[in-house]
Amino acid sequence: SKAEMGHTCRGTINLATANITVEDSCNFIISNGGAQTYHLKASSEVERQRWVTALELAKAKAVKMLEESDDSGDESVSQTDKTELQNTLRILSSKVEDLSTCNDLIAKHGTALQRSLSELEALRLPPDSTDKIKQVNERATLFRITSNAMINVSLHPEDSTVGFHSFTSVLSTVSPQACRDFMLLAQTHGKKWQKSLQQERDQRIRLEETLEQLAKQHNHLERAFRGATVLPAGTAGTGGSGKDLCCPAKGDLSDEDDDNNEFFDAPEIFPMPDVMGHKRTGSNISGTSSDISLDEQYKHQVEDTKKEKRTRIPYKPNYSLNLWSIMKNCIGKELSKIPMPVNFNEPLSMLQRLTEDLEYHELLDRAARCESSLEQLCYVAAFTVSSYSTTVFRTSKPFNPLLGETFELDRLEENGYRSLCEQVSHHPPAAAHHADSKNGWTLRQEIKITSKFRGKYLSIMPLGTIHCVFHSSGHHYTWKKVTTTVHNIIVGKLWIDQSGEIEIVNHKTGDKCILKFVPYSYFSRDVARKVTGEVMDPSGKVHFLLLGTWDEKMDCYRVQLGTGDNGAEARPRAHEAEDSRVLLWKRNPLPKYAENMYYFSELALTLNAPENGTAPTDSRWRPDQRLMENGRWDEANAEKQRLEEKQRLSRKRREAEAARATEDGKAGLSGGDVPLGVLPQSLTPLCPPGTPCDPYKPLWFERKKDPVTQELAHVYKGGYWESKEKQDWSLCPDIF
């Protein structure tokens, strides 16, 4: 393609530097000096000569193009641009010549004027005339001094107050040689800059065309594959699943018919479970009746959620999506600030995804029972890795929570813990999480999600520290999350990778664990998604080695310390005996038909189930998320826009009220009742000057400095579970 003209592609020979030699009557050789050689054979001597002649002509043309590109005086701009540039330079040259002429004239006339005044002064004239001549001479001298002074400042014609002649005297000092030098530089370098700019524009256009072409090719291959693998009509019902025959028919459309090709999900449609009681109806149903039916169909689940958890959700519908038309304008932007349709989402919020970290809470239960701090650290490390196991197939993004949105998970009776999350900031998006267990541990974290779309991949960087405290021993562990990367955003099948290092520190004992998430490499022989770790004491001595994958399991090996010949400790020897291996964690299998339910785990399937008694700000009551879960994506998109607009209006109202309060406070302090420099805390500015300030404060969390990490973080201040017991939600804002 044209995009390959600007660089060397592997397997190609640049004709401008190629050697073309004839071997015999039918064979000839093309080489570039050793790195690449082609041995070509023609069907006859005549055919060989035609090829050699054509290649020689092409080589001459390539050499000429190379010389033209190296010549700084030539360039590939259009003839119109050349003419315009030459006209401009011609005008500048004529203006410089005019200035040079004015310079000579003013110098000549100024000298003559000075000479005439001196001659008049030498004549014997009446006293009155002599005084007049001296006065004129002084004014001429003053005029010259003033002109010289004006030369040293940047005087503009519109600012001049001394008339046209004064301005002419300023212009007369312009050096014609300097102007000619400038004109010469403009002619020499202007073309280079314009050529570079044009090349950048062409390269960008070629890149867009190449990406679009790749997307078309991928779509065409995907349709061809589906058309070849569709089962006959008679076998569609076998195996408990059916094939949707509508998608292949739609895929027969030619790629050339429309530039904005559509992308389709897998056409396999499994029957929706009857227990959900939900069936897609026509789109002409009113919003009111839809909401009523939405509540009714889950009423039987809300009655007794503690005893029986749901195991199915409505299957993901097969909606088409114009992926490229949305993503091509998002390169390099922060993902949280891009308005995305629910087609990219899964029917869970970020708060619920954060709660999924507790899926393997039993690891912390076992860690709480450990007497050895090093063994306890092994289980904490396994718990850290386990939080990524649900992401291996989860390529959809969760809903961005609204400001003030909450999510609770009360599993105190079944599993011994309960959890609360709250969205404490919108820009940047930040969520605070607190979980308590009666089995002897507390987990808390505040996570800010930053993400960048880079064209081929999406990087998600969680910022914030996770704290785990064990009650009986007082051991306090902290760690941070690694970077998540979503690959093949435009072309190919989406896949997720985790990469980076995690340092888990026991702040009481000084023990430390270093976990390394090895990034996937096509050329590596290592196991995919590999994780390695070392558990060491404060002196740096390794006691346990961890090995596994973040999507399957983690094993622990006790390090056997040997002794060297000189009595010093030798390097740790691990894997010496299989009996030293301990299985710390293994991933739970996914539910049946998980591929049609967004690859949700058993815990994830229960998180959005309606539950009585939760706060009105709970994610379970979010209408756009509920509509999407039920397959009504068009209505969900409309509802999502309504909620986001409502959130924007609420923020503007808070900012306006804060601005008024600040002005009133300044007016009240102007009387001098308060000492200078002392402001009440309510009037202390929280935002930089000149920027709108959102005075929002979370309801269940408060911002404090952590005594261990010295970081400012939102910590649970209490009151939620008491309010739930009283069913007093009067403090909750109306966000839905």
UniProtKB/TrEMBL annotation:
The gene is Osbp. It is a peripheral membrane protein. InterPro entries: OSBP_sf (IPR037239), Oxysterol-bd (IPR000648), Oxysterol-bd_CS (IPR018494), PH-like_dom_sf (IPR011993), PH_domain (IPR001849). The lineage of its organism: Eukaryota, Metazoa, Chordata, Craniata, Vertebrata. Residues 611-673 are annotated as: Disordered. This is Oxysterol-binding protein. It is found in: Membrane. The keyword Transferase does not apply. The keyword Membrane applies. Residues 1-60 form the PH domain. Residues 197-224 form a coiled coil.
